[in-house]
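Instructor's aside before we start: the two examples that follow are unrelated to each other. I chose them only because their records fit on one page, so don't look for a connection. First example below.
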Amino acid sequence: MSAVRHIYHYTTDGRPSFGRDRLPINRVLLAHADVALQRLAEVLRDRPTWAQDLLQVARAVFLADKLSLRDGSDDGWTRRIDLSVQVVAAERWTDRALMLLSRLLGALTADQWDIRVHPGAAAWPQQMRGHTHQPVEEVSLFSGGLDSSAYAAERSRASGGDLLLVSYYEPQWATQQEQVLTAIHSLSRRTVRQSRSAQQLRAKKALEPSARSRGLLYVATAVYLAAAHQVSQVAVPENGQLALNPALTPSRVAACSTRSVHPHTLSLLNELISELGGSVTVANPYLHLTKGEVCRRALEAGLSSATLIRATVSCGHPPRDRPELHCGHCYPCLVRRSGLLAASDSDDTPYAKDVWALPDDLDAAADRRALHRWLVRPFGVRDLVTDMPLPDGLDPAPLLHVIQRGRTELTSMFRRNGEPLSQLQG
């Protein structure tokens, strides 16, 4: 464990006292659209303070995460972060709530978090008392990726009140989000609204390139909006392959592989919400689907192959200096390829690099090599839970089955590109 401690104090308003060793941080560092967020949360009743506090804590965590460089740690990854956050309802943050929060953050980031809260924050005021919206009936995350686009298309075709899509976006991908939303609106039988906020930091210093806590900020925003509108569930659509995200190699265990939608992570988050007195739950409706099965559902919902290929963004390392939206060689790109091939027998995504033409000794071929080795090894229940436990009561058999079906899709992709995996075992 690193001997370096990163110590912060997150203040929302007022001037509470704190130790001089604490670096003050606040939401001004986040280039987010709070006015638009609060307008979407306008209702004729007071908004739950527990949900406001959860969002403030998620913001504080994200800032502390990005401001604490991993390369100063003894192992180049693990940090010790001490964070104090000003909240409205400090009495709700019991010892158990803080313990659950620390466990949740540990699962997300593989760091040691020491979290405390103190009172003094003011509840966000209503901006438009008496103003009414059409009722929001469903809330879902929407990244503009293939999975969230598929779910938004499916739910837009259902009858009912408004569907609210909650997005954090990078400005360079905004055009693609708009293209997907245009396609969804053309299919929709209900009103589809969107909450969009940027997540860039206004900080004049080097920032940590990893952002394992970003998923918490993303979902806490959706939970806040759901709580304001008395919606009981937030959907976080992610195919089971990437939600479970088993480590391809021993070096990718823990937070070296993203676990933001893993069942264990969502279970801890739901326990925390319950301990705070909230009634919103977070669920992944695509947990038992492979990428190919999600792609098929997107097509069945009415999204065209052209929209899926040209407008959705799935890349883990999208090129920033090239017109292509996908690098073509990272693990999410490989899963995307396999899913589109399984669903429609073609993938014309303009990738920056042809992963099948890369020599094995190049760094860009690392994920292809790791995936190849993973596919030729057997995979069982023990492998499913070695790196991250499953919540009590969750049957591992269907999860193992989705991983096995996903391995079949991936194997087929390798074979059609001239790399047969003769040793593959289910």
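Example two begins here.
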Amino acid sequence: MSYQLICTDIDGTLLNKDRELSKTTIKQVQRVAPIPLVLISSRMPKGMRHLQQEFKNENTPLVAYNGGLILTNNKVLHSTFIKNNVLAEIINQCTNTSIHLSLFHADEWYVPSMDYWAKREENNTKVTPVIKSNIDVLNTWNNEGKGAHKIMCMGDASEIDTLYKSLENNFSNEILLYRSKDTYIEISHKDISKKTAIDVILKNCYPTLSMDNVIAFGDNYNDIEMLKAVGLGVAVANANYEVLKVADAVTDTNKNDGVAKAIKEYF
């Protein structure tokens, strides 16, 4: 099979231990150009563009928020956000807890204060949030007809656990809940995924290609559907057991340039 499109998750997959692109990874991606490499992540676009610039492939599509927002040359191909009535209830349930709520729409990121969680995410993504109360953000979005592409809940594991169970019981038909750690919940609209994002990209940007022409890399639960759908789904060796189980192949860890090594092998 001829692989003509590369899609890769970022954190835990593409980046090294310093959360950066290694020289080896940049070299391999540039070596196989013009085969496009599409970044496909739960990050906001602003947290991904500097990586595109390092690869010198700013013209390839960009998949943010696990498929909630898909861009090509800064033009919106697809956008799906969470209803504001759901956001209002999440804000309500987090009141009088220690849970931090980060709210994202396109390149907007709002936090109620620069606390431990906000600083941690700022360090990880190289993006600085705007300080604005969750209620003020909700009111603004209601007035502007906008909503959250992603909501991040971060805090004490037991409080996060309680919130997760409540949201799962009440809103499972509206939202997807994803726990990358016991102190995190990432929330997105239920109708989006990395697989649906690749479908949109193929239809709009690469109509002569099919899923069989795609090679994809991932490490976590939100990568499973994508890895199963593409022509070759590759897990990095540090991936979760369930991801390793569904992958067609396993490469080295993200810390040991696993994606670069696979690109060298398959291209």
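The first strand starts at residue 5 and ends at 8.
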